[in-house]
Amino acid sequence: MVNSSSKLSDLLVRGIKNIGDVNSEFMQVLEREYERQKSVLMMVASSSYASPSVLACMGMPTVNITAEGYPHARYHAGCAEVDKIEEVAITNAKQIFKAAYANVQPHSATTANEIVTYSLVKPGGLIMGMNLSSGGHLSHGASVSYSGADFQVVRYGLDENYLIDYDKVEELALQHHPKMIICGTTAYCRKIDFKRFREIADKVGAYLLADISHISGLVIAGLHESPIDYAHVTTTCTHKQLFGPRGGLILSGKDAKSKVFGENITLEDKLQSAVFPFFQGAPMINQIAAKAIALELAGSLEYTQTMQRVVDNAKILFNHLQSKGFDIISSGTENHIVLVDLSNKCIGGDVAEKALEECGIIVNKNGVPNKKINGNNTSKRPAGIRIGTNGISQRNMTAEAVQKCATMIADVLNHTHGASLETCKVDDAVKFDVLRKVEELCQEFPIPGY
Ligand SMILES: Cc1ncc(COP(=O)(O)O)c(C=O)c1O
């Protein structure tokens, strides 16, 4: 066994060397990207670091296997070992989320949402999701995605305190009678009341889909309520808070064995055939292996502690930036997200993103609900930035280090000039000071395993 695993590692090492032989410049790009990741403060809310074991799974020769179908029901021979891999992933997913049903094959969360939506609502049917501009996701009914193009959509938003307006959601649901209500967000920093969403869905006979892509780790760690038994179906990606490979999961709890409305088929059977053969072909076994490992790691005490840090660090970031005069959306954060409103500053979210990147801090520009840059109502530029604490928490940063991050962000934003990406400039003294401090922090708190 030792011998065979060392051969497997030889294969990976040889593969890395061979990339350089095939195209040395390409290898240099890959190496530079690895060095970049280690030497910047990655504070993108939708990102995290995959552990080396997760990375290794994605380079395995299981990529050679065509395995259309499901364990023990494949369209091809030679799948005995990959069956075991997929079974472990399913078991781990069900265990960690306390779900009755798990499908580990979806290629992404968007694909998972697409599969669930088309399975439970006919094209042209009515779905209800959160506005993109309030913090919803593209696949929750945005006009530029399948969900807004192929379905009719009723959109809900936030109240004046930037909280989900549940009464309004109920009012809209009673008025329009959607077939499915989608909850779950992309740029919302508060807990979600899944129970209330289910009550609303039940009142109008709608399915409830909970997309927990952003908060799946907080759910696993018990820091946020689990939607598994409230929603008919729950989806998540595996590459944000699960620290896994790019990919998606479809989960279901107590409704898994109930019948689909008006059909003689259970929810889990419907979803199973919707993933394959309806929407996807052969599964990506390497990704599934990596999901299995990521889900296993998510059961550790270390992971739970990291999730606690994720929440604590976001609060520190929130308070520190607020004390430095920045407007932050909502009166607090309960997850990993801090949404900074720059609408009253002379710079937009795009300029802020660029300025911070020049100083080694990676965030993303983000719209701020009902806010425009400098009150310019015709501007399509995002008025804020979204900052996330997954990455710095994986780096085990202390409270003091997180305060330093907040101070650096404030310093850069306060010393950035220029109203557009072309004219944007950070004062040199601040830029070099922050670049030095980022380097120090990255050395003091390396990415585990990198
Ligand atoms: C709530 C939510 N759902 C789905 C997605 C899409 O995930 P994927 O990249 O796996 O399609 C995102 C990505 O940002 C998201 O925030």
Tell me the strand percentage band: 5-15%
Widest β-sheet, arrangement of strands: 4-10-9-8-7-5-6
CATH topology of the largest domain: Aspartate Aminotransferase, domain 2
Average of pLDDT: 96
The count of strands amounts to: 17
* Biggest sheet character: 7 strands, mixed
C-alpha-based Rg, rounded: 23 Å
Low-confidence stretches: none
* Secondary-structure content class: alpha/beta
Count of helix runs = 16
Proper CATH architecture of the largest domain: 3-Layer(aba) Sandwich
Q: List ligands, each type once.
A: pyridoxal-5'-phosphate
Task: Tally the structural domains.
Answer: 2
The CATH homologous superfamily of the largest domain: Type I PLP-dependent aspartate aminotransferase-like (Major domain)
Report the top-level CATH class of the largest domain. Alpha Beta
Gap between N and C termini, in Å? 26 Å
Helix content: 40-55%
Task: Write up what this structure looks like.
The chain is 45% helix and 13% strand. It is an alpha/beta fold and 450 residues long. It has 2 domains: 63-297, Type I PLP-dependent aspartate aminotransferase-like (Major domain) (Aspartate Aminotransferase, domain 2); 301-444, Aspartate Aminotransferase, domain 1, CATH 3.90.1150.10. The strands form 5 sheets. It has a 7-stranded mixed β-sheet, sandwiched between helices. A 4-stranded antiparallel β-sheet has the order 11-12-15-14. Helix 4 runs parallel beside helix 11 (285-297), helix 5 crosses helix 10 and helix 15 runs antiparallel to helix 16. The mean pLDDT is 96. Pyridoxal-5'-phosphate is lined by residues 46, 108-110, 137, 139, 184-186, 211, 213-214, 237, 248. The site of pyridoxal-5'-phosphate (PLP) has 14 residues, from helix 5.
